[in-house]
Specification:
Chain lengths: ~400, ~210
Amino acid sequence: MTRLETVGEIEELARAQADRPASLIAQFGADEPLPLDAGVSLSPFQIAYMTYGELNADKSNAVLICHALTGDQHAASANPVTGKPGWWSLMVGPGRPIDTERYFVICPNVLGGCMGTTGPASIDPATGNPYGLDLPVITVRDMVQAQAMLIDRLGIDQVLCVIGGSMGGMQVLQWAASYPERVFAAVPIACAARHSSQNIAFHEVGRQAVMADPNWLGGKYAELGGSPRKGLAVARMAAHITYLSDEALHRKFGRQLQDRAKLAFGFDADFQVESYLRHQGMTFVDRFDANAYLYMTRAMDYFDLAKDYDGVLANAFAGTKTRFCIVSFTSDWLFPTSENRTIVHALNAAAANVSFVEIETDRGHDSFLLDEPEMFETVAGFLSAAARRKGIT
Amino acid sequence: MTTEMQRRADAAHPERIDLKVITGFVTPRARVLDIGCGDGALLQRLENEKEVDGRGIELSQKGVNEAVARGLSVVQGNADHDLATYPDNSFDFVILSQTLQATHNPRLVLEQLLRIGQKVVVSIPNFGNWRIRSQLVLKGRMPITQDLPYSWYDTPNIHFCTVRDFVTLVDEIDAKVEKAVALIGNGRVMNRAIRLPLWNLLADQAIFLLRR
């Protein structure tokens, strides 16, 4: 039997990314601290990011991509850890909806992540050890503030579009609320203006699974050796179910058995769906830091955009000139259409320019990462019209 | 020659003259909300010809997705439920084309339109038209026409009115008719001199420009 605490080759590769990512890095020294919602400043810190395409002469064609909970900056190029194509390579690239021959695409790893932007797996310069839980809790607003500093660094006043799904969508909404004059168009996909009680509950199950693993060691596993692979795998398995739908799972697996003709009357993976989930869990732990998972889920839990605007979501968008396109999926029960429609209604109340598309699919929340032609047409059409209005040829 | 070709083209597509009249009502660079905008044909026309800042609401998801993919700003929703979220006076023009008769509460919808828009364009099919009247009177059957092709049991049109009924409602809610145009079958605009009683008998549809 494999000893789970052994750090494998891929995991080794992933850990190296935390401080020395195979991407661009923007470093922010003592003169540019980041004041966090937690009440303390983070300094120094760094942002790992990728860019695709060329920034035009008047720096008006930038598209900022915000990634989801377990995503990273490698949206459109091979992931240096897994070797797999970028997580949004169907959406971003030459001739794709976010056309890199037309737009300058920026995709940063979020603050608190584990792919090179400062996060719990990064080395704390004060101790020489990974931050672990000594890193303050990060919020979606902190992530966006850090991204704004990156956009400043790149000399861009206003981005043509900020786009992202799920936690990425939350960042898009935060961008539009915090920096309305810097966002010409915004595409929040499959998200919500606040994390629901049910979603917080799912995240708590995941965090408890990680923290219950004896190898978690109070978050100090990186310096003491090993990692809470089992706990993180269970967290991922539970979360993964919420990204799919009953219908899609049934279509894909039904009650089919895994490599056997009949039930084994034991607790091995009898069913294909069990085997699939175990695989999802195990491949995830190779590439993702357990503490970063705690920080990411917490950031989403804390997200409640209206809270900063007297509890009225429309106030977050008062007077906005940003053009919005909200996208939801019929079978997404994690961020259902009703949550997305709440955002639409708030934008209507703020007399904002808003489009809202609900796409019919049985593939659940994960649809935003998949081959959904109607989503591609929507994004391509919306982005193209925005570019036209901003005078980009 | 061109006019004759245009007339024929319009006659072949009666809906186009409807859009043409509405487009004529809208002032350049206005903020426009088109309710029941379908795939966005009118919005597109208004953006092209009048450079409006246009938005749409459409019930069918297919229509919405097509319109957004064409670069128009459209949300899925319906006139009965989704107007309440818009602030007062948020648009220069609010357009409700051939949709009022399909709403659950036309009076409330009309009041909402007048609250949201400085001016309101409403087009209605005229149930007072003589062909419709004769089907009911002579045949004793619920009318089915080219423009209103549904049977009584499957029609989405649940609140029909005549031109006269509509004008009465406008009076009741203290709104003013600023302009009105009646269209007959093949899409011809009726002579403006002809007055309401004749419109009520001859018009297939009427288009009103209203204000508070």
